[in-house]
Design brief:
The chain contains 6 helices and 6 strands; from the N terminus they run αββββββααααα. By secondary structure, the chain is α+β, with helices and mostly antiparallel strands. It is rod-shaped and about 160 Å long.
Length: 330
C-alpha cells in the first residue's frame, strides 16, 4: 500500500480546496459577466433606438417622414453581419425604411415597446413621440453571444492560467514549512545506543514543540536505563570475578588431590565450567567497557587478532559441547 507523505496530503488537500473555490468563483464571475455584458449591450441597443426615435419624431413634426416611400432600404457604408440592423414601420405594420442588413419582414409582428428575442436578433422596439412610427433595432444574436463568451473568457481564463502557478507556490510553501519537521526527523534518526544526546533546539512550529520535548524526555529515560544496565553488568562482572577465580583455584587443588581416583574426571568438568564462567565474566566486562565508550578510538587497528580470538572462542565452545555430549552418552 502506497503511503502519502504529510507534505503531499497538505498540498493535495489545499489544492482541492483552492480548485473548488476557483471553479465556484469562475461560475459566479461568468454569470456576473454575462449579466453585465448583456445589460450593457441592451443599453446600447436602447440608446440607438432612442436616437432613431428622436430623428423620426423630428421628421414627423415637419411631415417629411410621411413622404418616405414604403420599403426603402438605407444603404450604409461599412455594414457587415455584426452591425446593428433597424426597421422603421407604421403602427399598422407597413415597413417604410430598413437597413440593408435587416430582414424584409418585421423583426416582431407585435409592435409594443420592449425587448424581444428572436432566432437571429435581439430586438428593441420603441414608438416615435408622435405615435406615427415604430422603430425596431436588432442586434445579431451571434455577435452578442460572441461578446459574452469573449468577456467570460477574459474573466475566467486568468484563473485557469494561474492555477499551475498556484500549485507550484503552494507546494513550495508547504515543503518550506515542513523543513523543521524534516530536521527533527533527521535528528531523531541519528540517535542510537551510542548517541543518546538530547535533540538540540530547532526552529519548530508550536505543534512540534511538544513532540521535541517528548523525544528529549524519552532519550533521557533511555540513557538512564542503559546506564543502569551497563552499571549492573559491570558491577556484576566485578563482583563475580573474584569468587569465580577463587572457585577455579579450589577446583584445581581438588583435582590435584583426586588424581588417579574415580572423581578426577568430575573435578575436571567442574574446573572447565568454572573457566567458562570466568571467560563469560571477562566478556561481560569487555562489553561493559565497549558500550560505555571507553574503548572507542578514531585510529585504525588490526582486526586479525580480534578475528583469531573469536575463532578460538568458537572452537573452544564447539569442543566443550562435544565433550558434554560425549559425557551424556557415556
Amino acid at each position: 500500500m502506497k503511503r502519502w507523505s504529510l507534505a503531499s496530503r497538505i498540498v493535495s488537500g489545499t489544492l482541492i480546496i483552492v480548485l473548488g473555490a476557483l471553479v465556484l468563483l469562475s461560475i459566479l464571475v461568468a454569470a456576473f459577466t454575462r449579466y453585465e455584458v448583456t445589460e450593457r449591450l441592451d443599453n446600447s441597443l436602447q440608446e440607438v433606438a432612442e436616437r432613431l426615435e428622436f430623428v423620426i419624431s423630428e421628421l414627423d413634426k415637419t411631415d417629411k417622414a410621411s413622404a418616405t416611400p414604403g420599403g426603402q432600404i438605407a444603404q450604409l457604408p461599412g455594414v457587415n453581419r455584426r452591425t446593428l440592423a433597424y426597421q422603421i414601420t407604421t403602427p399598422d405594420g407597413r415597413l417604410e425604411v430598413r437597413s440593408q442588413n435587416a430582414p424584409e419582414t418585421l423583426f416582431v409582428p407585435r409592435l409594443k415597446s420592449g425587448f424581444y428575442n428572436i432566432s437571429l436578433f435581439r430586438v428593441y422596439v420603441v414608438p416615435s413621440a408622435s405615435g406615427r412610427h415604430y422603430i425596431l433595432v436588432g442586434e445579431p444574436t451571434f455577435h452578442r453571444n460572441e461578446a459574452v463568451r469573449r468577456a467570460i473568457l477574459i474573466s475566467v481564463l486568468p484563473m485557469v492560467i494561474f492555477f499551475p502557478a498556484i500549485w507550484v507556490l503552494v507546494r513550495w510553501r508547504v515543503r518550506r514549512a515542513m523543513r523543521p519537521l524534516t530536521s527533527l526527523q533527521q535528528e531523531i534518526r541519528s540517535r542510537g545506543g551510542s548517541n543518546l544526546a538530547p535533540v538540540p533546539p530547532l526552529d519548530l512550529p508550536e505543534e512540534l514543540v511538544s513532540i521535541h520535548s517528548a523525544v528529549n524526555l524519552l532519550l533521557e529515560r533511555l540513557k538512564m536505563a542503559l546506564s543502569t544496565e551497563r552499571a549492573f553488568a559491570a558491577n556484576a562482572a566485578h563482583e563475580l570475578r573474584n569468587p569465580v577465580g577463587a572457585l577455579l583455584a579450589q577446583v584445581q587443588v581438588l583435582r590435584n588431590l583426586l588424581v588417579g581416583s574415580d572423581y578426577e574426571e568430575r573435578a575436571t568438568i567442574i574446573m572447565q565450567q568454572a573457566r567458562r564462567i570466568g571467560r563469560m565474566m571477562e566478556k561481560l566486562l569487555q562489553l561493559s567497557r565497549a558500550t560505555s565508550g571507553i574503548a572507542l578510538t578514531g585510529n585504525m587497528f588490526d582486526l586479525v587478532p580480534v578475528i583469531r580470538f573469536l575463532a578460538e572462542e568458537l572452537e573452544r565452545e564447539k569442543t566443550r559441547r562435544l565433550n558434554f555430549l560425549e559425557h551424556l552418552i557415556s
